[in-house]
Design brief:
Layout (H helix, E strand, L loop, with lengths): L1 H23 L10 H15 L7 H38 L3 E2 L7 H12 L8 E2 L2 H46 L5 H7 L5 H25 L15 H16 L4 H24 L14 H10 L11 H25 L21
Antiparallel strand pairs: 1-2
C-alpha cells in the first residue's frame, strides 16, 4: 500500500509547485515540462479545432474569447481535484483509522474524507481518529485555506494587468484606427505639433510594451484573454508599434529616430520573449506585408509629412532588416493566438471603432 502514499505525495508536491510557479512566482519558469503549460497548450489546440462548428465570424470570435477565463477556472478546479485525490491516496495508503458509516475503509470513503477536509463542509459522519490522520486533516485543511486565499488574491492582479493592457489598446483606436495601422497613424499626424505628439506616443508605447512583457511572462494566461473589440488585440497593437518605429527609424526626422530606437528595442524584446515563452517557431508569412511597390506607395504617401522616408537603396535595405528582426515572431504569435495583424498598406479603409456605427 506504500505505493499509494508515495504517489499521493508526488501529486501534492507537483500540484503545489505548479500552482506556486503559475500564480505566485513573478518570473518565467524555464523548465519545459509544467502541468499548467501542457494544460494550456493541449486545451488551446483542442479548443481552436472546435471553432469549425461556428459559421459566422462573430460567433467564432465570441467562442475564442471565452477560452481565457474558462481555462483559468478549469485549471484551478483541476489543481483542487488533484490535491484532494493526492491526500486521499495518502490516507488510503497508510489506512488511516477513521470513523465512518459501516466502518468503511475503501478508497471512495477516503476520497470523501479528503474532499470534506479540503473544503469547509460538514464531515461529522467521517473523520480521523488517530493522531496521524488528524495531522493529515489539519495539513490538508490548511492547504485548502491557503489555496483559496491564493486564488482570491490572484484574480485581482490578473484582471488589473488585463485592464492596463486594454486601456492602452483602446487608446490606439483614435490614433491608429482599428485594427491599428502604422501608416494611418503617421498620415493623421500632419499638423505642427505632430513631432511632439508622436514623441509622447513613443513614450507611452515603450511603457506599454514593458508592461506587456512583464505581465504576460509572469501570467501567461493573459495572452489568451482577447480584447473587448473584434478588430483589436495585443498582437496587432504590438505589431503596429514595431511597424511605426521601423518607419520612423528610416525617416528624415532625427529627433524622432533617437526616440523610436528605444521603443523599437523594447517592443522587439517583448515579441521575441513572448514567442519563446510559448515555445513558438518564428516564421515568415507567405504574403509579404510590404512589397517593393507598396513601399514606393508608402514613401509617396509620407513624402510631405514630418515623417518622410529617406530615399535610396540603403533605406530599403535597412527597413527590410528591421522588419526581419520582428515580423517572423509576430507571425508566430498571430497564427498561434489567431489574432490577425495589419499589413503596412491595406486596400481596406482604416477606420476608428467609434466611427463605425455613425
Amino acid at each position: 500500500m506504500i505505493i499509494f502514499t508515495i504517489f499521493g505525495l508526488i501529486l501534492i508536491i507537483a500540484t503545489l509547485s505548479d500552482a506556486f510557479e503559475t500564480i505566485i512566482l513573478p518570473r518565467r519558469v524555464n523548465r519545459r515540462f509544467r502541468f499548467s503549460r501542457l494544460f494550456y497548450r493541449v486545451f488551446w489546440i483542442l479548443w481552436i479545432k472546435e471553432k469549425k462548428f461556428f459559421e459566422s465570424a462573430n460567433a467564432i470570435k465570441d467562442y475564442l474569447g471565452v477560452f481565457g477565463p474558462l481555462s483559468l477556472i478549469i485549471l484551478i478546479s483541476v489543481w483542487a481535484v488533484v490535491l484532494i485525490f493526492g491526500f486521499a491516496l495518502i490516507n488510503f495508503g497508510i489506512q488511516t483509522d477513521i470513523q465512518s458509516p459501516h466502518n468503511a475503509r475503501d478508497f471512495i470513503t477516503y476520497l470523501y474524507l479528503s474532499g470534506a477536509t479540503f473544503f469547509p463542509v460538514d464531515i461529522a459522519d467521517t473523520y480521523p481518529i488517530q493522531v496521524v490522520g488528524k495531522l493529515l486533516a489539519i495539513i490538508e485543511s490548511g492547504i485548502g485555506f491557503g489555496f483559496l486565499a491564493m486564488v482570491i488574491g490572484y484574480l485581482p492582479v490578473l484582471y488589473q494587468g488585463f485592464s492596463r493592457r486594454e486601456v492602452n489598446i483602446n487608446l490606439l483606436d483614435s490614433h491608429a484606427g482599428s485594427p491599428p495601422n502604422a501608416l494611418y497613424l503617421l498620415q493623421r499626424l500632419t499638423n505642427g505639433d505632430s513631432v511632439e505628439i508622436l514623441k509622447s506616443q513613443l513614450d507611452n508605447w515603450e511603457q506599454w510594451c514593458a508592461e506587456l512583457l512583464e505581465t504576460h511572462i509572469s501570467y501567461p494566461v493573459l495572452a489568451y484573454y482577447r480584447s473587448q473589440h473584434d478588430d483589436q488585440s495585443w498582437v496587432a497593437a504590438l505589431t503596429m508599434i514595431l511597424d511605426a518605429s521601423s518607419l520612423i527609424l528610416v525617416s528624415n526626422n532625427p529627433i524622432l529616430r533617437s526616440k523610436a530606437k528605444s521603443t523599437f528595442a523594447i517592443a522587439r524584446h517583448a515579441a521575441v520573449d513572448l514567442t519563446e515563452a510559448f515555445y513558438l517557431t518564428p516564421h515568415s508569412s507567405q504574403k509579404d506585408r510590404l512589397s517593393k511597390n507598396d513601399f514606393i506607395r508608402l514613401r509617396t504617401l509620407l513624402k510631405h509629412s514630418a515623417f518622410s522616408v529617406k530615399e535610396g537603396e540603403k533605406t530599403d535595405e535597412k527597413l527590410l532588416y528591421l522588419r526581419k528582426l520582428y515580423e517572423p515572431y509576430m507571425h508566430a504569435l498571430s497564427d498561434f493566438f489567431i489574432m490577425s495583424i495589419s499589413p503596412f498598406l491595406t486596400n481596406e479603409k482604416v477606420e476608428e471603432a467609434w466611427r463605425k456605427n455613425i
